[in-house]
Each structure stands twice: as C-alpha cells, then as structure tokens.
Write a structure and sequence with these properties.
The complex is a heterodimer of chains A (577) and B (117). Chain A is of the alpha+beta class and 577 residues long. Chain A has helices at 2-58, 63-66, 109-119, 125-132, 147-156, 178-181, 193-197, 199-203, 215-231, 268-271, 287-297, 331-336, 340-350, 352-361, 386-393, 402-413, 443-459, 528-543, 557-563, and strands at residues 82-83, 89-101, 139-145, 161-170, 209-210, 236-243, 249-255, 305-307, 312-314, 317-319, 328-330, 417-419, 437-439, 473-483, 486-500, 507-514. The N and C termini of chain A lie far apart (164 Å). The chains are: A alpha+beta (577), B mainly alpha (117).
C-alpha cells in the first residue's frame, strides 16, 4: 500500500516539472494556431476583397450580362391579332369579364335570379334558379359582359356572384372577311378559316398574323358581288382577286356570308365557303386551259381551226354551241365566241393524257394546300375517257373551286408560272425556282393567251367586262348546273375570269354567280357575259386606284401591236366551203 | 493611436452602411416607381388595344363610304378617271416664275430646282 502511495507521489513529482517545462511550447502552439486561423481568415477576406474589386472594377464590361433586365410591361393576349396586308385589324382579343356563381355561397337563389334578370334581361330567371340550386361548386351565368353590365351586376352586392377575367375574340370588320378568317369559340379555340389554320401560330404569342388580304379590295368585291346577287336573285356567289405574280389572295368573298362575332347564328349555307370549299363545273372558262394546252403542245396554231358548223354527237351526248356561228372557226374565233364544239375537238386533238397532265400541273386535280380546312377536292372523271376529254375541253365533267380556277388562270397569263395561291404575304419577284412556283407554259404561249383573253373582252362574249383604261382581258363561263343528276337548262353557274392590265397582268378577278336569273336589263340572259362580266368591270375600276394601277391609253400603238391578233386567218379548203 | 484607428473604422463602417441603406431605399423607390409605370403602361396598352379595335370598326370601308356619300359629295366614286399622275401635269415655264429676291411659292419649287441646276 505504502509502496503504492510513494510510487504515486513519485509519479506526481516526476510529472510536475515536466508539465512546467511543456507549458511554454503549449502557448507557442496556441499562438501558432491562432496565427494560422488568422492567416486563413485574412486569406479568405483578401480573396473576397480581390473578387469584389475584380467584379466591381475589372469586370464592368460584363455587367449587363450579369444584371437582370428590369421587368417590362407587355400586353399579352391568349390569341394574337390577325391583320390584313396593310395592317388593318381583322381579329383581336378584348378583355371582358364573365359572370359566374358559386351556388353554395348564394343565400337566396330566387332573389339573385330576379335581380340578375333585371340587369341582364335576356337571361331567364327559372334557368338561373335551377343553376343556383344545382349543388355544383361553379356555374357560368353569362360569358363576356360589357363593362356596364359588369358594373351593374357588381352593384347588386350579392355574395356568391363573381367575375372571371376573360378574353373575347372580336372581329371589327364583321362579315367582310368572314369566310377567310373563320371564327374561334368562346374558349378561344380556332374553329374555321384562318383561325383554325393558324391556330398554333396565333396561340404562340409571336405577335400579329398578317394575311395577304387587302380589305379595300375585299370590300369592293363584297359590295359589287352583293349587288349582283340581289340584282340577279342568285342563290350565292363567289369572288376572288389574286395577284398573278405571287399567288397572294387579295380578296376572297363568298355570299351569303355571316358575322364571325356571332357564328352560332349563321346557317350552314352562310358558313359554306363557295370560293374554296364549293367545287363547281365552271363551263367555258376552262377553254382558257384547253386553248393554252393546245397552243403549248403545238396541237394548234392561231391560223388553225375547227369545223363548228353542226353539233357534235358522241354516243348519247350532243355538244352544242351557245352562240352558234355554224361554220369553220379559227382558234381565236373558237375562243372569242366560246365554241363548245371547237373546244371539244381541240381537246380531243390534245388527247386525254396530255390534258390530264397539264391540268395536274395547273393544280386543278388536287385540293389546294392553303392550310384551310375548307379546301374543296376537285371532282374528276374516273376513268378519263375520250368523252370526258371532250367535255372537260369546255369545262364540263370536272368540278373545281373558284380559287383553283383563278390560280390556274393566273398561270396562263403571267408568263406561264403556276403560283400556288396563298393567304400568307409573299414577297414580289417570284422566282421560277421558288417552292410554290412552277413553270407550266412558255412565255410565248402566255402572251398568246393574253391576246386571246383581250380579244374576248374587246370583241367577243366578254365585252361587258371592259373597264376603260385598264386593258381588261377575260373569259366568260356559263355552265348548266347539275340538278338531281341531270343538267337543267334553268339553273346556271355564270362566271367570268378577268385579268388586268393585259399588257402586263397584275391581278386576276374572278366572279362566280350561282343560279342568277336574267332581268329585263339583260334581256333575260343569265350567262357569264351578262351577269358576271359587269361585276368584274366594276371591281376592276374601283380597285385599280387602290392597288396603284393607273389607267392607260388602250389604243396606244405599242399596246395595239403587243396584243394584235389575226382573228379570221385564211380559211383552209374544206369540203363544206 | 488605437482610438484614432477605431474612429476611422467606425466612420468608414458608418459611411458604408449609410451608403448601402441609401442605395437600397433608392432602389426600392425606383422599383416601386417602375412597377407603377409598368402598371400604367399596361393600362395604356390595354386602352390602345381597345382603341385599335374601335379604329378598325370605325374604319370599315362600308362606313367610310356612307360618310363620304353624306359629307364629301365630290369624292363619291372611287373610280380613278379624274385622277392623273403628277408627272403627267404640264410643267409651267420655269423662267416665268423665277423672280429674284422673292420667296418661292409651292408651285414654283420644281422651277427653282431646275434653275439651280
């Protein structure tokens, strides 16, 4: 025990001097540690300082990249505006308030219903009561209130009634471009026309969608077409103005039309787009293509002709002329008097295969790729027999839309390029190599077609389409409508494809009247030359100043020379002469 | 010496915090102003948007035609027959209009240009 104790004391004794000896280095160690920590802290602060100086002074150039751009107020709507080529607003979204109710918060349904019908007289009280007692958590009372209505409802001070901020699609130009614009539903989904075709773009928030329409021209076409419809008691009408250089649609009217602000009130007939969706057998206007193909393929020349002295009988069909000359007719005469017999014979000489190929190039055998859902599919004969070739020669047995016809006609006069029609704005100077443009006819054929079309207006069936100074050319079309499977002599489809100025064509103006009736003024005639041609004349005279085309002297020698044509060349020796 | 250093540091810290708070408050004020301005801009854009729709509605060609018919009888038809291009206007004799020392009237501007050439 003792030894143990002494051992412990000895141990302590031994330790004491050692501890004293070691206390000096311990302080040293502590100091070193403090210095170390200090060093680290100084280093860290120095790094922060250096970085601060670096950021504040040396990286000033990069500052904008680091700084956030201040929030900028920008009005955004659920759906972008639609504007015409000149920026006229055609469709826009306006903020409105919609009234809804939370039925469980409504105290007295009948009182609320009574008050609401006093403010909004077109609502029915029993219906509101029924809605308020339905037990649902949310019921719409009325969408898209006017500011005044909203204020009045607010003033009722009824709990349980509330407003939802909404946007209403508004078409300030009302029915003027109804068929092209189409309309959107109450939840801003595009349902027809451009609204549907460009739905994604309109929703993407990338600013207004500009379309190729010119509202001034659109109004002129709408006005004149409407006048013709009432004058000739037509059941409907379609009008198209197309830029022949680019295929842009400047105007497209279909009557009867509707107000896209209230699409639900429109009948199916009003909503039907007669210019793009309706396909019709258009009649003689197709002779433009027959003649152009015949000239292009070298089947005929201006000096050639066909015997049109008697109706053409093919199996059970008889092809007659509306304006019978009953003699041999030259190619220009066939065109100018619109001889069915001549055109049928010409088509037969072209042959079904070539005819089909060329009509295909002219886009007449397929529906147009406009993006619009309202794109009519042409009705073409299957199989394509020689009788079909003949009737198609003068525009029967094939049905196309008005826009098909206008676009194909443009290709015959603009130098021979087919430009796919479009509602988008294209730049001018369309190149032959562009994606929407293809060569169908030669420049030479196109010039000859311009001469022929001018001839029709100067001396032929289309004289009423003349507009002094604008050098109008064109072709009449009068087709008997197929009523219940047979052609009826009473119901006609009268049309006129016009273009101006023929020395340097700029625009196609197409008018199509569905079942016009002759008047005393037209001596009972209802054909294209009597009903549709005057409309084209007036449209051209009214639109020309707006599109920047000045009247010229139609009798100027240079123009006379350019469009000179030998109508009745030396006739060949024929047995009948 | 120590007091002096302390004073300096205290002064610096005070100045820094004053500057910092000053900037902070200024930024806050500016941000409030920006917000207010943005609200105003939005409100203005909203009314411009509505006005544009109204402008388009009031500028319907149909309405303009009625207005022209009622108020501008001379401009009734849009037909261009009475319209000619400016280059087709007959030119006046330049010398006739040039009187030295006198101001040119608008009609003689062309003439003046020609004389100066």
């Amino acid at each position: 025990m003792n030894t143990q104790k002494s051992h412990r004391i000895a141990k302590e004794r031994r330790r004491t001097p050692r501890t004293a000896a070691r206390s000096i280095p311990a302080i040293e160690t502590g100091r070193t540690r403090i210095l170390m920590t200090l060093g680290v802290a100084v280093f860290a602060f120095a790094a922060v300082c250096i970085r601060l100086i670096d950021l504040a002074i040396f990286q000033a150039a990069e500052e904008p990249a680091i700084a956030r751009v201040a929030y900028k107020a920008e009005l955004s709507t659920e759906r972008a505006d639609i504007v015409d080529r000149n920026g006229v607003l055609l469709a826009t979204n306006l903020a409105t308030a919609s009234l809804y109710a939370k039925p469980h918060e409504v105290m007295d349904a009948e009182e609320v219903a009574g008050q609401l019908t006093a403010v909004l007289p077109d609502l029915s009280a029993p219906e509101i009561v029924e809605k308020l007692r339905s037990g649902r958590r949310f019921v719409w009372i009325r969408r898209n209130l006017t500011p005044r209505q909203q204020w009045q409802v607010n003033r009722l001070g009824q709990p349980g009634l509330d407003f939802q901020h909404e946007e209403a699609r508004v078409y300030p130009q009302a029915s003027l471009a109804a068929h092209i614009l189409g309309f959107a539903d109450i939840d801003n989904n595009g349902l027809a026309g451009i609204e549907r075709a460009f739905d994604k773009t309109l929703r993407s928030g990338r600013g207004p969608v500009r379309i190729s329409l010119d509202m001034r021209v659109q109004h002129i076409m709408h006005d004149e077409l409407g006048r013709a419809v009432s004058e000739f008691a037509a059941t409907g009408a379609a009008g198209v103005v197309l830029d022949v250089r680019s295929g842009e649609v400047l105007s497209l009217v279909s009557l009867p039309d509707f107000d896209p602000n209230h699409p639900a009130e429109a009948t199916a007939d009003q909503r039907f787009n007669r210019a793009t969706l309706g396909v019709y057998e258009v009649g003689s206007t197709f002779k433009i293509f027959t003649t152009a193909i015949a000239l292009e393929t070298g089947v005929v020349d201006f000096t050639d002709g066909y015997d049109a002295s008697r109706p053409l009988r093919v199996s059970r069909f008889t092809i007659r002329d509306y304006h019978p000359e009953s003699r041999w007719l030259s190619v220009p005469e066939i065109f100018m008097y619109s001889s069915n017999i001549g055109a049928a014979k010409m088509a037969l000489d072209i042959g079904g295969e070539a005819q089909r190929a060329y009509l295909g190039h002219l886009g007449l055998l397929k529906s147009l790729s406009l993006g619009l859902l309202e794109a009519g599919v042409p009705m073409i004969p299957r199989p394509w027999r020689s009788i079909n070739t003949m009737t198609i020669g003068f525009g029967h047995g094939i049905a196309v839309s008005a826009l098909h016809l206008a676009a194909a006609a443009a290709a015959t006069i603009n130098g021979g390029l087919y430009n796919a029609p479009t509602f988008s704005v294209r730049s001018y100077g369309v190149a032959e190599t562009s994606s929407f443009s293809r060569r169908v006819f030669s420049e030479e054929t196109s010039l000859r077609m311009r001469k022929l079309l001018r001839l029709v207006v100067e001396k032929g069936t289309g004289r009423k389409a003349a507009a002094p100074g604008y050098l109008v050319g064109g072709k009449t079309g009068t087709a008997e409508k197929l009523v219940a499977g047979s052609y009826s002599g009473d119901a006609l489809l009268s049309s006129f494809v016009g273009a101006f100025p023929m020395n340097k064509p700029r625009y196609i103006v197409l008018v199509l009247l569905d079942d016009p009736k002759g008047t005393a003024k037209t001596h009972g005639f209802a054909g294209g030359g009597w009903t549709a041609a005057p409309v084209v004349s007036r449209v051209i005279q009214r639109m020309a100043p707006f599109v920047g085309i000045a009247p010229i002297d139609e009798d100027a020698p240079a123009i006379r020379r350019l469009l000179a044509i030998d109508v009745a060349p030396k006739r060949p020796r024929l047995a009948s002469y | 010496m120590k007091t002096f250093a302390f004073m300096v540091w205290f002064g610096l810290a005070g100045a820094a915090s004053f500057a910092l708070f000053n900037v902070t408050f200024k930024v806050e004020n500016l941000e409030a102003e920006l917000g207010e301005l943005n609200r105003q801009i939005l409100a203005d854009q909203q009314s411009i948007h509505v006005l544009k729709a109204e402008w388009s509605y009031l500028g319907r060609p149909e309405r303009l035609e009625t207005l022209i018919e009622n108020h501008l009888p001379d401009l009734k038809s849009g037909i261009a027959s009475p319209t000619i291009r400016i280059e087709h206007l007959p030119k006046r004799d330049a010398a006739e209009l040039y009187i030295p020392g006198q101001a040119f009237g608008p009609a003689s501007l062309y003439a003046a240009d020609e004389i100066q050439k």
